[in-house]
């Protein structure tokens, strides 16, 4: 059996500390784009069953009565830094991850929950989701509001500093993946037009 080791760099007040860590202590962090899925069920199953989607699963728990839409997730992935307020198949779309970028008539405060996720990328999930929850509440999306979000669909695409679909035969990311790590946090709520 081949053993793989990764160099881990941690920045602290005294400068950088470097250590080697055995790959067996690490989980794979490889993600797929929502564009690779055809149905809501396929995408939801991927989110439920993949290690790299732990943060996505935790964020979805904040919207307990809202179904995930693979089509909305596709539309908000790898797009512009803002999420359009209209998309095919949806009468309106609200950018929940970055409320400050929604249109003015929605009067949502310019609070940026996704910015917080970006600043804490790849850190443990629990504290990040707790803070994300607080920021959503400050932006007008309290738990009681989110519980009532039953008619619309949630578009979500979370890449939390992960390699993008480049798994090797060993099940580990490719050696060059540290140069192509993806970080992106997109969450949108859309009302289907059909």
What does this structure look like?
The chain is of the alpha/beta class and 194 residues long. Helices cover 26% and strands 25% of the residues. The chain has helices at 40-49, 54-60, 70-76, 113-119, 125-138, 143-147, and strands at residues 5-12, 15-22, 30-31, 67-68, 90-95, 153-164, 182-192. Strands 3, 4, 5, 6 and 7 form a five-stranded mixed beta sheet that branches. The protein has a two-stranded antiparallel sheet with strand order 1-2. A hairpin with a 2-residue loop joins strand 1 and strand 2. Helix 2 (54-60) runs parallel beside helix 5 and helix 4 (113-119) runs antiparallel to helix 5 (125-138). The protein is globular and about 55 Å long. The chain starts with a strand and ends with a strand. The model is unreliable at 101-109 (pLDDT under 50).
Which features would summarize this protein structure in a list?
194 residues; alpha/beta; 5-stranded mixed sheet; two-stranded antiparallel ribbon; 26% helix; globular
Strand content: 25-35%
The secondary-structure class comes to alpha/beta
The radius of gyration is 18 Å
Order of helices and strands: EEEHHEHEHHHEE
Measured between the Cα atoms of the first and last residue, the distance is 54 Å
Overall mean pLDDT stands at 77
Q: Got a strand count?
A: 7
Low-confidence stretches: 101-109
Summary of the model, kept short:
By secondary structure, the chain is α/β, with parallel strands linked by helices. The chain is built from six helices and seven strands; from the N terminus they run E-E-E-H-H-E-H-E-H-H-H-E-E.
Give the secondary structure arrangement, pairings included.
Layout (H helix, E strand, L loop, with lengths): L4 E8 L2 E8 L7 E2 L8 H10 L4 H7 L6 E2 L1 H7 L13 E6 L17 H7 L5 H14 L4 H5 L5 E12 L17 E11 L2
Parallel strand pairs: 3-6, 4-6
Antiparallel strand pairs: 1-2, 5-7, 6-7
């Amino acid at each position: 059996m081949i053993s793989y080791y990764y160099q881990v760099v941690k920045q602290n007040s005294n400068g950088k500390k470097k250590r080697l860590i055995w790959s067996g202590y690490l989980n794979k962090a490889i993600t797929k784009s929502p564009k690779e899925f055809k149905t809501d069920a396929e995408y939801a199953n991927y989110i439920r069953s993949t290690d790299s989607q732990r943060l996505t699963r935790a964020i979805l728990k904040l919207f307990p009565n809202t179904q995930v839409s693979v089509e909305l997730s596709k539309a908000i992935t790898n797009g512009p830094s803002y999420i359009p307020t209209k998309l095919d198949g949806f009468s309106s779309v609200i950018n929940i991850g970055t409320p400050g970028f929604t249109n003015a008539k929605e009067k949502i405060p310019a609070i940026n929950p996704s910015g917080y996720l970006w600043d804490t990328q790849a850190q443990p999930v629990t504290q990040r989701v707790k803070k994300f929850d607080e920021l959503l509440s400050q932006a007008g999306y309290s738990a009681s509001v989110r519980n009532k979000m039953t008619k619309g669909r949630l578009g979500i695409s979370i890449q939390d500093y992960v390699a993008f679909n480049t798994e090797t035969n060993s099940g580990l990311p490719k050696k060059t993946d540290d140069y192509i790590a993806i970080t992106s946090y997109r969450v949108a709520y859309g009302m289907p037009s059909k």
